[in-house]
Amino acid sequence: MQNFSLAGCDETANDILENIPSDSERRAATDGGTRRRGAGGYSFRRPAPFRIFRRQVDGGAESFEDDRSASNGSVDTNLRTVMMSQSAGEDPEERKITAIDKQKKEGDIYNISAEGDINPLSNDYFGVVANYFSVGLMMGGSTSLLYPVLIVKAGATASLMTASYAVIMVCWSYKIVFGFLSDCFPIFGYKRKPYIVIGWLFCAAVLIALAREGNDVDPRNLVIMFALANLGYVWADVASDGFMVFIAHREPIEKRGTMQTLVYSVSKLGQIAINLLILVGFSGPEMNCPGYQPDPSIPCTNNIYIIKRVDPELYTNNPYSWCYEMCDDATFEWDLSIPEFAISICFVIFASIPLYLRLKEDKVQAEPRLEFLAKFWSQLKRKAAWQVILYGMISHITFGVSNAAKMPANYVWLDLHTFQHSIMVIFEKFFFFVGLNLVRKYALNVSWRKQVLAGSLLVLVFNSLYFIIIFDVWRNSWFYIFTDVSALFMYTLNFLASHACMVEVAEPGYEAITYSLITTATNAVSPLSAVVSYQLLAFFPLLNDQESIATDTPEVRSQFASLQALVMLINISSLLSLPLLPRQKKETREMVAKGEISSFWGSFVILSALTFLCYSTIVTFVTVKYHDVYGCMKVLGGGGCSADESSTMALGLVSCIFLYCYGVSFYLTYLPIFTGERSFSRSMFY
Known about the structure:
Elements: H1 13-19, H2 23-29, H3 67-72, H4 80-84, H5 92-106, H6 126-144, H7 146-153, H8 158-169, H9 175-184, H10 193-212, H11 219-248, H12 258-281, H13 285-288, H14 304-308, H15 312-317, H16 338-357, H17 369-380, H18 383-400, H19 406-414, H20 418-442, H21 448-464, H22 466-470, H23 477-505, H24 511-535, H25 546-551, H26 554-572, H27 585-594, H28 599-625, H29 627-630, H30 648-674
Helix pairs in contact: 6-11, 6-12, 6-16, 7-8, 8-11, 8-24, 8-28, 9-11, 9-24, 10-11, 10-16, 11-12, 11-24, 12-20, 18-23, 18-24, 18-28, 18-30, 20-23, 21-23, 21-26, 23-24, 23-27, 24-28
C-alpha cells in the first residue's frame, strides 16, 4: 500500500478527522434537511465546501414545497453583507451557509425595512388615503353609470355592455407605463407627489370636457370620455401605490397587510358614496322610462326600437302623450344630469389637491434610465416576481370570465331598474368593505391559498343559485341582489389574497414600478376576461340582445343554463393554478431571499402581458366604437352578420387563451409530478 505524507499541511490528520461533520450535522448544513439547527447552531469548520450536500438551483426549475419544507428551505440570495462579517479564512461556500443560518435566525428576510412603521392617517400621509377615496369615486362612478345609461335607457346588447365596462377599465392595464414615469422621471426631485396631482388634474379636465357635451351625449362617446378620465386617475393611483407600498414595507410582518386593507377599504367607501349619488340622481323618469320627454312642446318619438321598450299599458292608454308621463320603473320625479354628475366629482378632486401637496416625500436624484431598466429587469427575472405574476394572470382570466347575458336578463326578467341596481352595488361595496376589515382583523396571517380556495367555492355556490332565476322557479330582483352581494362578499378572500403577496415581492427602491408591473399584468387580463365572456355569446346567439331574452322560450332558457354552467366550470378551473400562489408572507419572503432567477420566464411574462393587452384593447375598443358596423360579428359576441357566418374564429381565439392558462399551470405545477420530480399532495392547494 502506498504511504501518504501529511507533511507541510496546516492541519494534522486528527484535526481533519475531528472536523468532519456527522450525519446529523451534514443534514443540518444542507438545504433539503428536515431538521433545523438548535438555537446555538453547530460550530464546526469544514475542510472543504460541501457542495454535494446542497441543492443546486436551476434558474428555470420549479418546485413547490409544503409548509414544512417551505419553512426549512434554502435562502439562496445575495448575502454579501452578512458574509463580510464572517471569518476571512472560511471558504466562500461555508460563509454562505453560515450567513444563511444567521439571517434565518435573525429574521432579516421577513422585515423588509428597518425603519419604524408609519401612521397613514397622520398629516404627512393622509393624502394617500384621500387619494384612494377619490379613486373609488371615479372607478365606481364611471362603471356604475353604465347600467342605467346603456342597459336601462339605451337597451344595449350584452356584448356592448361588457365591452364598454372593459374599455373604461382598460387604462388599469397600462399601470406599468406610469410606474416607469414615476420611478424614472422625478419632477423637482419628487417621483410620486407631482404625478398624483398631475393625474387628478388631467382627470378633472376630461370630466369638465364631458360636462360640456351636455346631457344628450352619445352613450359610446360617454364610455370613451370616461376611459380618458380614468387614464388620469390611474396615473395618480400608480404614484399613490408607491406611497402605499412604501408605508406597508415599514409594517412588522405580523401586521403587514394593514395598509393595503385600509386603502382598499377607503376606495370602497368612495364607491359607496358615488353610488348613493347615482341612486338618488338617476332613478327618475328621464333615465328609467324609454322615450321619456320632459318638454311637452317636443312630440313623442316614432322610433320603433324605443317604442318596443315602452310599457305596453302606458303606450296603449296614451298613444300620443305617453312620453310625458312617468313610468313605474322611475322611483323619483327628478333626474341628475350627466354634466352635474361630472362636476360633482370634479369638486371632490379639487378639494383633495391640497392634501396631495402636503404629502411627505424625500427628494431623489433621477436614476439613469437604462441602468434603472436593467435593475428592473433583474427584479422581473426573479422567480418570486414572475411566479406571482403568472398566478395573477391565469387566475384572473379563468375566474374573471362571467355570464355576459346576465345584465340584459336582469332587466327584462327581473325588472332590475336603476334604483334597485344602485342599491345592489352599494350593498356590494359595503359588504366588500366589511369583508376587507374582517380579513384585516382575523385572517391577516391565514394561508392565502386557503382564502382563495374558500372564497372561490363559496362564490360558485351563490352563483349557482342563478339557475333558480333561469328556469323561473323564483324570479325576484331582491333574491338576485342577495345572491350577487353574497358572492362578492366571499370574493373578498380572493381579492386580498391575490394582492397581499405583491407587497412582499416589491423591493425597496422599486415600489411603484414593481407593484405596477404585477398589477398591470393582472389588470391586462381583466379586459381579456371580458372579451372571452362576450365571445362565448357567439355559441349562444339567443342571449345577446334584450328582445330575444325577453321571449323566455325553452330554447332561451336552455342556452342560458348551458352558458351559466360553462362559466362556472371555467371559474372553478382557476383553482388549478393555486399552487403557484405562495401561502403567506413568510413563504413569499423566503422565495425572494432564495434569489432564483429565470430570463426565460421573465421574458415569457412580458410577452404574455403585452400580447393580451394589445389584443383585449383592440377588440374592446372596436366593439364599442364601431358596434353599429361590427357588433353583429360572432368574434365580437354578436349573433352573426349573416346566416352562414362561422364561429370558428371565436372558438379558435377562446381556445388559445384557455390553452395558455391550463398549459402554463400544467407545465409549472403538474408536469414535475408526472416526471417524478415531486409528489402530488393535497397541501398544494392550501
